[in-house]
Inverse folding.
């Protein structure tokens, strides 16, 4: 006998849930679509909160612990909302050799935020990437999705200060 | 569709372009894009518009030309010419567009010229990258025009799966992801395992920091990888494939998505490929930022929607891989080598390189070196030639200290060993590995203890936590390295570190842990005095 479990309703009438649902539907609500689904939650909402994880777990018929386990295993998934701007500092080997550490220190000193943190005014989140593959342009940062190569601490600070 | 039909198709595509005597090729790979290539492309198109009809030139976005440090790069190429036959311009700005367009067909613009006869270009041999920087990666027709998908059509129409396996085996191609396992042997093993459902996986989770070869191949010539995968699927009897790409490469994902869609529409992927009974579907799976997912069993766990944790082998993926089915898994560069091998024959490929390492290898040159970027050289090229001739040596009058190969699983090679030929076995004897092809050059200012600590910190954070030697061992090794680097380490600490290296190497479950001590061991081997100098009194 198969137990037919009904799928949970969308958590709210926020349209973004439909995008998430579409990803799951495209994959036939199979458990192996978990990572794809979490990507689409993060694309839509910017991070994964408990509501989202419960909804995904229910829809894909997975335990919440499994969803939480996967969400916390992968570095890319964020459980906290990001600030208005995100600065990803690449700390790959080439960037490390060319002084990525200095960029992280400079941000820490100027804005008092370390990797994985967001400023109190919610303006800037600082993240670390394990090589964005722009080694020819080391040291590189990805500011709001746009790659900036050959950064000096001073250049980067000027750029970050100009953000609204 | 047979080979003649395809050749006719390609001829037709070429004839359409023949009206333009020249092409202005703008590198639109990630590196040049971030230095401003899109604005250059727009400016060139505008400049062309103003002088339309006179120049007989077409502006085209292409893939990586290799010399990332001189980007944005623009090549003015007579129709059908390769990179060597073009006039190459470096550090191009949108303001230069009019001057460049005015020079087409006349004397080259000397102020921006980047000579293509310099060793960086002249010493390379391009097989994997043969189309890179020449074709538009978003165009399936462009790929067919340069002979693309001919190998697939040839394999399907004129060869049995066993014949394909024979060519790949004869080529001597070894896995380019780092392990160097013979591709022919791997393919033949999967082909022999009985099973209705088999899978082909392309490992595009290029996690080694300092490596961007696969990224460039995916961004510059995505159809090449799809063609290699489809040939593999035919050879082993698979009908479904996955491309596991890291999410950090959005442009590669975008181009692959386009390539899959267009290849399907043109009948090179999907059901009944090239009007044969062979079908092959490819799906992209995104990584989510876990280095360990480059390990094959962890990668498969991730495709299945689980945490990317490796499992013990055997059983190998060839027997029991994705969802327990026989699975062939190779990396991007390996698949990119397949089409030329089928087209030219395994013996042709086997004639390039050294006795045990055949073909060419793509390397990503980075760090403190004059020419950073992507190169492809025959196996067996001397390391010194790569660094001094092709790479242009160390800038700023500083002295060379070490080159790091193989990422966090590799090691550092000092000046005294620069004369070795680069192949799988020579690098191994030096205590490092070929790895996927990252080469990071360090000058005399580099602190080798700090380098070792950097890699250990990487392995520590990336350890998946499944087996204790790796999870706890990397923590302890990092703590020891940290205290030595800060000048607080004792002689006992150093002895303990060396002992731990052995234990972690011998007892870890997967490659990540087994090779995590390599950067420490190799720096200890060649730069022990730097460690000693930092020790505090015993």
């Amino acid at each position: 006998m198969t137990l037919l479990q009904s799928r949970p309703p969308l958590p709210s009438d926020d349209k973004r849930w439909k995008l998430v649902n579409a990803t799951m539907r495209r994959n036939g609500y199979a458990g192996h679509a978990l990572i794809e689904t979490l990507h689409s939650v993060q694309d839509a909402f910017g991070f994964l909160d408990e509501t989202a994880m419960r909804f995904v777990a229910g829809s894909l018929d997975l335990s919440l612990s499994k969803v939480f386990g996967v969400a916390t295993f992968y570095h890319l998934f964020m459980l906290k909302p990001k600030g208005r701007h995100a600065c990803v500092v690449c700390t790959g080997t080439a960037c490390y050799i060319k002084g990525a550490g200095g960029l992280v220190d400079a941000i820490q000193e100027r804005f008092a935020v370390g990797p994985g943190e967001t400023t109190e005014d919610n303006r800037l989140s600082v993240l670390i990437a394990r090589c964005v593959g722009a080694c020819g342009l080391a040291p590189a940062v990805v500011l709001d999705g746009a790659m900036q190569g050959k950064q000096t601490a001073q250049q980067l600070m000027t750029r970050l200060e100009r953000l609204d | 569709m047979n080979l003649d039909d395809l050749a006719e198709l390609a001829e037709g595509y070429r004839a359409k372009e023949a009206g333009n005597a020249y092409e202005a090729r703008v590198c639109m790979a990630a590196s040049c894009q971030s230095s401003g290539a899109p604005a250059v492309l727009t400016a060139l198109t505008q400049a062309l518009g103003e002088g339309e009809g006179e120049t007989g030139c077409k502006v085209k976005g292409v893939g990586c030309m290799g010399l990332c440090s001189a980007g944005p790069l623009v090549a003015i190429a007579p129709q059908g010419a390769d990179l060597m036959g073009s006039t190459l311009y470096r550090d191009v700005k949108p303001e230069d567009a009019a001057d460049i367009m005015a020079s087409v067909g006349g004397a080259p613009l000397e102020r921006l010229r980047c000579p293509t006869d310099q060793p960086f270009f002249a010493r390379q041999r391009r097989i994997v990258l043969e189309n890179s920087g020449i074709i538009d990666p978003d165009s399936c027709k462009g790929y067919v025009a340069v002979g693309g998908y001919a190998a697939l059509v040839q394999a399907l129409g004129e060869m049995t799966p066993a014949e394909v396996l024979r060519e790949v085996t004869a080529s001597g191609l070894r896995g380019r992801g780092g392990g160097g396992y013979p591709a022919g042997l791997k393919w033949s093993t999967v082909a022999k395992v009985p099973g209705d459902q088999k899978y082909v996986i392309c490992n595009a989770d290029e996690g080694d920091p300092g490596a961007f070869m696969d990224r460039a191949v995916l961004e510059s010539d995505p159809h090449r990888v799809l063609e290699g995968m489809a040939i593999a699927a035919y050879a082993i009897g698979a009908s479904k494939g996955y491309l596991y790409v890291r999410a950090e490469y959005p442009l590669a994902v975008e181009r692959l998505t386009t390539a899959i869609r267009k290849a399907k529409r043109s009948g090179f992927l999907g059901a009944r490929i090239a009007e044969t009974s062979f079908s092959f579907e490819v799906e992209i799976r995104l990584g989510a930022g876990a280095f360990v997912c480059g390990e094959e069993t962890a990668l498969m766990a991730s495709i299945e929607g689980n945490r990317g944790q490796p499992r013990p082998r055997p059983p190998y993926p060839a027997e029991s891989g994705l969802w327990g089915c026989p699975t062939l898994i190779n990396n991007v560069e390996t698949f990119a080598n397949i089409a030329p091998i089928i087209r030219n024959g395994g013996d042709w490929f086997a004639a390039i390189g050294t006795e045990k390492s055949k073909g060419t290898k793509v390397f990503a040159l980075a760090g403190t070196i004059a020419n950073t970027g992507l190169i492809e050289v025959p196996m067996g090229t001397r390391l010194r030639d790569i660094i001094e001739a092709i790479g242009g040596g160390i800038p700023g009058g500083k002295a060379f200290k070490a080159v790091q190969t193989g990422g966090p699983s590799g090691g550092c090679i000092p000046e005294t060993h620069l004369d070795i030929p680069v192949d799988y076995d020579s690098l191994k004897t030096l205590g490092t590995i070929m790895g996927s092809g990252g080469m990071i050059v360090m000058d005399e200012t580099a602190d080798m203890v700090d380098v070792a600590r950097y890699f250990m910190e990487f392995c520590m954070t990336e350890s998946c936590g499944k087996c204790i030697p790796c999870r706890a061992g990397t923590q302890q090794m990092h703590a020891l390295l940290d205290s030595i680097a800060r000048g607080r380490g004792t002689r006992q600490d150093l002895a303990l570190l060396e002992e731990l290296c052995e234990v972690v190497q011998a007892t870890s479950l997967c490659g990540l842990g087994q090779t995590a001590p390599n950067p420490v061991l190799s720096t200890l081997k060649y730069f022990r005095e730097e460690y000693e100098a930092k020790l505090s009194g015993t």
Observations:
- DSSP finds seven helices and five strands in chain A.
